[in-house]
Records
---
Amino acid sequence: MKATLSFLLTLSLCWQSNRTSAQTTTTISSPDKAVVLSVSNTPAGQVAYRVTYKGKKVIEPSTLGFALSKPQVSLTRFTIAAIDSATIDETWKPVWGEASQIRNHCKELRVTLADQSGSGIQMQVRFRVFNDGVGFRYEFPTQPNLSHFVVADELTQFRLSADHRTFWMPGDYDSNEYLYNTTKLSEVAALAAIRKEKDIALQSVIGDNAIQTPLLFKTTDGLYISLYEAAVLNYPIMHLQLDKKTLRLQAQLTPDAVGNKAYLQTPSKTPWRTIIVSDKATDIVGSKLILNLNEPSTIADPSWIKPQKFMGVWWEMHIGKGNWAKALGKHAANTQNVKKYIDFSAKNGFDGLLVEGWNEGWEDWFGNWKEEVFDFVTPYSDYNIDSLTAYAQKKGIKLIMHHETSGSVTNYERRMDAAFQYMVDKGINTVKTGYVGRIIPRGEHHDSQWMVNHYQRVAERAAKYKLMVDSHESAHPTGLHRTYPNWMASEAARGSEFNNAPTLGITPEHTTILPFTRMLGGPMDFTPGLFRFQLNQFDSSRTQRVRTTLAKQLALYITLYSPLQMVADLPENYEKHMDAFQFIRDVPVDWDDSQVLAAEPGDYLMIARKTKGKDSWFVGAITDENSRTLPLSLDFLEPGKTYEATIYRDADNADWHENPEAYTIEKKRVTSKTKLNLRLANGGGFAIQLTQL
Ligand code: NOJ
Ligand code: CA
């Protein structure tokens, strides 16, 4: 690691001539000079930042600041008290991931601001300028005039230079499980979008002009711009309020149950606000900026953390074959049924088996907002957990625990230690948590500071018991899997289960937008791998369906990265397509290298990944509702070597709507000089395994 501090040296500091309206502008560029950040102190005393990329406007001058309610002070006018800068250039190795090493190379600028209103408060803004964007955060150092304080509002602004094409979701303090809308920025209409998506039951919608991050823009001069946040700890999730006249977005922090935004104590720092920018769409998907802004791992010996492929006693409840609750009959988590899944998982070389509905409480878990529903340690009488863990162990499978909190988070906090110890006693080392419903008893939001602290506590406490976590209905991820590598994945977006939703479900384009947005924050437990597309298998009245081809379901294992990858469908549905299932058996969940080969948000995506520690590569490509042909050059393969390519592609007559199960499997000898041209059907995709011969 090399970090140099060079006070003022790298800065161009220019003072305007008139001293009474002095305006300072400090400029700093990314290592490759493409991204330029300038920070100015306006004559009125505001501090604004501006970002350009290769000379094009990214963020127009946008102001910084806070409103505190305790002490009551508005931090909006400042004197710049000091400026310093540094260069960071280090390479680090994640415990698992899309690449075995990551370079963190940026220029840092730290601006110390002294409040002009007489409060005596000082704060710092730390900017980091990377080749692919900017991150900045506020820091409140220890100081005489500020100790404990309450944030009423963060006043950070992001002013866009034009009415860009925007990929957005409605602002909602409790749900990120929306489809993305694509409109001009000025055409954001959050409430109309929500009305269209009648299937969203739980909402804390903020208003017509409020949208969520991650947010993506495509400009008419060829830039892709992402707004998001990194390292959200002890602070609420940021939503954005749009002023359509000025195309200005302003931070709108998630309030707590009594309307405050954050309770902080010096020294403290906010999350990073991130602006990722490139003229190549592929670079947005491949950006490591958010990970680089997170702190290194807190787990000294991560040898117990293992990427996994897992099946689940799960989808069969979603599509009406079985139930979570024993009293409803057809109880899926019964010993016999779970054994069948263990057998199938073992036969196919998977690592884990999730079992939902194993514990008492499901008769009354939803809608009544009861605080004491689950105790997380009492299995149903037809679920013999000891015999099952022993059986699983004999077969080389680990059961995955399920803790649905039903939003009763105080109950979960009280019972967490006992629940984690129970897992350890049963030899179970991964837990899927869930936060369906309102957060009771206080009425916090899923995105509030209190809940952000809860998710962190779960990750930390789980690490003490050497447990891995997969959280559902948690706040959007912000790269914390670097710091807590046992918090391996989260749902935190509209996942595959929405294929079963009565209304909009999952559109073919949804998975082409996620990698540009939600996935920038971390792995998603999307639960790919559905092989049956009409979901009326056990209930003929169901009209819900999956809107992809079978080949696209395979490709999702590559295009949606996760170290916990579910094999979501039922054994009987896989048994009909064992040749295609071979891809799911073979695909790894941990990688040495990943290359985004082609991408356009809302349209298509193609990624190649190299297996961790092996000379084999996998390629996945997906398209939206339009069929297309993607040229693929295999020049990432080792030159001079021959590989066998197994290509799983849409058959020529495949189509997500009419003929989703039509696929073709071909084998070919290829080298780094081979060029392929593969057609993807409407809503289709392809998946390739490349093994060195
Ligand atoms: C919602 C989760 O996303 C889903 O995976 C789970 O089966 C249900 N809640 C029940 O906990
Ligand atoms: Ca969910």
---
Amino acid sequence: MKNYFSSQVLRKIVAVSVLAMPVTVAVAQTKSGDTKMDSFVSGLMTKMTLDEKIGQLNLVTSGRALTGSVVNKGVEESIKKGNIGGIFGVYGTDYISKAQDLAVKNSRLHIPLIFGLDVIHGHRTIFPIPLGMSATWDMGLIERSAKIAASEATGEGINWVFSPMVDIARDPRWGRISEGSGEDPYLGSQIAKAMVKGYQGTSMKNSDAVMACVKHFALYGGAEAGREYNTVDMSLIKMYQDYLPPYKAAVDAGAGSFMSSFNTINGVPATANQWLLTDVLRKQWGFKGFVVSDYTAVSELTAHGLGDLQTVSALALKAGLDMDMVAEGFLTTLKKSLKEGKVTQQEIDLACRRVLEAKYKLGLFDNPYKSINADVESKTELTETNRLAARETAEHSFVLLKNQGQILPLKKSGNIALIGPLADNHSEMLGTWVIAGDPNKSVSVIDGIKKVVGSNANILYARGSNFTDDSLLNARAWFFGMKQIRDTRPAQEMIDEAVETAKKADVVVAVVGESANMTGESASRSDINIPETQRDLLKALFKTGKPIVLVLFNGRPLTLTWENEHANAILDVWAPGTEAGNAVADVLFGNYNPAGKITATFPKNVGQVPIYYNHKNTGRPFDDKGPAKFKSDYIDVSNAPLFPFGYGLSYTTFNYSDVKLSKASLKGNETLTATVTVSNTGKLAGEEVVQLYVSDPVASISRSVKELKNFKKIMLQPGEQKEVSFNISTQDLKFYNTRLNYDWEPGQFIVEIGTNSSDVHSASVQWEK
Ligand code: BGC
């Protein structure tokens, strides 16, 4: 590859910098372990003026893809002046190559820009939303989705993606639960690693690799009452045990950058939190990359009550923040703060070095345009191979929540009524956080079904209802330029038409749920039912007495108690992405047997929230067995969820044997093997996610009732059985104690293996030091 920076530009830099006589200050030396990179960056920094260094810390958006309400002005001039380190929210070879031209041809030091984008679940080929993707429990599929997203994005010059989002969430009211991997720290950690690997590949210099930006650091998913951007107050044990592991796993996987979160953590906003950004992230975990703020999070520190823009910018820099997204607090105040002794030259240098190192690691100094290529853009995006991968991933993400009388898979014959606001729709197939995906290229459910059944069955269609007729929800879910396709007919007229259609059918497939805009950022809900209008439609359909299959679109666990009582089957398809309709049809008609398992607990009602499987026992545990007085419970609902973590059915059935342990008692660092035999007792081949949980009933602190420690996805033919074994070491017994020591304590442990977190077989073991 041509060494663009060193061959052409470096000579110019040397020449220009002599003329411009930059204020040369001692550059803080850090040892990254890469001596070539260290000396390159140090060499470059000796030529940089203070303004140019601060410029590197400035990340702007010029408004092509709006992900916030503030947009930077005068971007072109700022690039030429060296006042910008990177641009985000842009895509397309045209824009990016022009912007890069400005930086490498027209700025004094020709330092390339870094281009970031919210590539969250695919770039042009859209995969299921992350919560859906996590339901695959399939790290191979997840890693491949990130790799495909990276290859599509790099073709357009994007070299930095604001993903993975690894925030643990136990509250489905929070709209952004859709962007993460659910409630479990172990599964979340495996997914964090798979995503980082998929994006960054073996080297970020590779033409199809991008730098990952792990977000939102930290604990954003712990927001009070699921309210967006809200406060987090949490014990250190809970943080370390349940919320921080996926971020740490991403560091261990070599993630190049992190994004600080909007929330406060025990009083101190994450973006100005030195303990978090420096002590935990860098000193405890050894993170070597750079930290960018979230959108205007630096200036928002003022609303948090930390002071004016100058004060908060200095606080953020000192805390360990390296790049300021959109707020321009660093750009406009750090020089003054340096003069006034509020920040040091070393602090500015360190942040600048980290940003330059990221560009170096991406190979941008060798080739600022990297793989940008209009040809690549058209040849590698939304290809048949990528579409097939998206279809396969979507199928694996679907969760069969109910299948009474084995109504599914449907036969490809007879009259099938397809009803609901999501049945004939392209725009909602992709889900939340889709910047460059084209909804018009997505497959609607009706198109997918027609293709899969061909002329064997007769498909009848009625829309049945709009998403919602609630004026507040309508106004708040669709704003900021977002469009809703509404049917202008009165609600009753639409329902009547749907009922007439249903009457003509052998079976009704109701495609209902949340639109993309009802989930994601700034889309928290206090009511997590299917919206009332759609409920009314379902009630009318149930009255026809026809068998009803719900195909549910959702970006969060919904409260489905009523639907679960009435529908014959429920297939949860989240927001499946570009190949939505094909994947839904494949599963409905049995071309693929669903094996997804939910990764966030579905409550019976919203009052049970927050609800999660790895809760504490309490002194008065509720067990649903006897009278409930004086127990830790409610008097109007049991503590049990509607669907527990790890739950999901198949078109076939599986039987689990008892758990066999290799030893009844162990000592020290011995390894225990736990084995079950899983048999396919049904008539179809199918996959099953076999889950291992461990509980620690006696310890120096009150432990969670159980914790997921491992899982294996297996395939079984009808009648086939397989032994599934898990090795358990003392590593799996460790927890954070009151001193935050991560260690295990001897005694009894319960090993549980099963099909979901509630339905397990268990065995007890004694483990001494
Ligand atoms: C979101 C981030 C996103 C950023 C840039 C923010 O509002 O919280 O997740 O990466 O915008 O678009």
